[in-house]
Amino acid sequence: MQVKAKSTLHCLTKEKDGVDGSSIYIYGEGWDFAEVARNGRGVNASQFNLSETGIGSFNDRIRDAVLGGSPFGHPLQQGFVTGLLLQPNGHDHGTEANAESMLAASKDHIQIGMAANLQDFVLTNSDGIEVKGSEILTYGGTPVAYASCPTETVNYVSAHDNETLFDIVSLKTPMDISVAERCRVNHLATSIIALSQGIPFFHSGDEILRSKSLDRDSYNSGDWFNRLDFTYNSNNWGVGLPPREKNEKNWPLMKPRLADPSFRPQKIHILAAVDNFLNLLRIRYSSPLFRLRTANAIQQRVRFHNTGPSWVHGVIVMSIEDGHDGFPGLSQLDPIYSFIVVVFNVSPKEVSFVSPSLQSRSLRLHPIQLASSDDLVKTSTYEASAGRFVVPRRTTAVFVEPRKM
Q1: pLDDT above 70: residue 17
Q2: Whose CA is closest to 276, among 346, 189, 351?
Q3: One-character DSSP codes across 253-319
């Protein structure tokens, strides 16, 4: 999409083109590179230029912060969910202080992404300073946020290009963790996307732990590497070294992993992944608060609580508020829940988080999670008197406050 002129997209009309696009969502790749970079051939349809058009573009900021590095960096560089600082994989991330700084920056990037990557969303950053999304910078020095409304942000962690989610998690996490733990990391990444504002995008097969046996560019790799197994007997891990052209330089990293049978999920893991993914979709659609339609609604209702320099490492805490008696200035959108808190714990250990601003609420674990097959998430607790949340390792816990009838 980025090679098209912005004016071309604006020129599409019902009268001229015979299509009423009011109910059609348009999105694409808004990368600013190659011959069209920096508007080299006129104003192109890139991320920043699409602001105020309502047209969506893929948010690579949240992808890179969640997973670590970039598609063009070292495949072992870790990110927020893959063990940066909290469970190192042996790759050189610099000093511990540097890894801590990278983890904090990743958290800020993810939180802005979860607020639909809005330029004007105000966040207390990891230094304890209130900043707009447009004032938080990527490692390349460009602003993290580029959107003016939720539809302009397509949040994702994997797509047709590059490794599948399961494959990149298998590369970046330490070799000695269990496949069950890798599956939890996979689910954490998916849950961040599913419960974010904006448009969630999922690569086909993320829900079944799809593997291309680490192939990072499989458009010409045939069914052998692109296979999707809906019998759930296999996720296609370890079917061979991926083709030489785009993968050979990483074969030394791939060989021991692909040859290790402990990396391969069993049917029980795949079925659990499907169940967890469907539960995420059910939770997203259980409340319109997860699908706010305007920038103003997001700015009014979405807050992040584990912020500033003393934050609990590996934890993101997001609340979404609806109109109720105690907040008469806010309209009511959800007839069932008046307040939602989501705690993402990417740490390999149980965490406890206390927030005075979340005291004395009638929060309980979401009924969909209480009925799920994940016994670990069911141990998540909230203590109203202290505003304390306890969430087990590598778990996303959703707490809801039922509306008083």
Answers
A1: no
A2: 189
A3: HHHHHHT-GGGSPPHHHHHHHHHHHHHHHHHHTT-GGGG--SHHHHHHHEEE-S-STT--TTEEEEE
Spatial separation of the C-alpha atoms in residues 152 and 148, rounded to whole Å = 7
Please report which helix (H) or strand (E) contains residue 131, including its range.
Answer: strand 130-132
Question: Rounded distance, CA 171 to CA 177, Å?
Answer: 12
**Gap between the Cα atoms of 282 and 372, Å rounded:** 11
Structure tokens at 81: 């969910």
The predicted-structure confidence for 290-310, as pLDDT tens digits, reads as follows: 999 999 999 999 999 999 999
> Closest Cα to residue 187, out of 382, 354, 373?
373
Sort strands 351-354 and 337-345 into parallel, antiparallel or unpaired. unpaired
Amino acid, single-letter form, for residue 223 = D
pTM: 0.95
165-172 vs 179-194: helix crossing angle, rounded to 10? 130
Q: Which residue has the tokens 């994989």?
A: 89
Long-range contacts of the stretch 30-35 (C-beta < 8 A, 24+): 30/1, 30/2, 30/57, 30/58, 31/2, 31/60, 32/2, 33/2, 34/3, 35/3
Burial of 399 (0-12, 13-18, 19+ CB in 10 A): buried
Q: Which of 396, 399, 336, 404 minimizes the C-alpha distance to 367?
A: 399
Rounded Cα gap, residues 278 and 191, in angstroms: 11
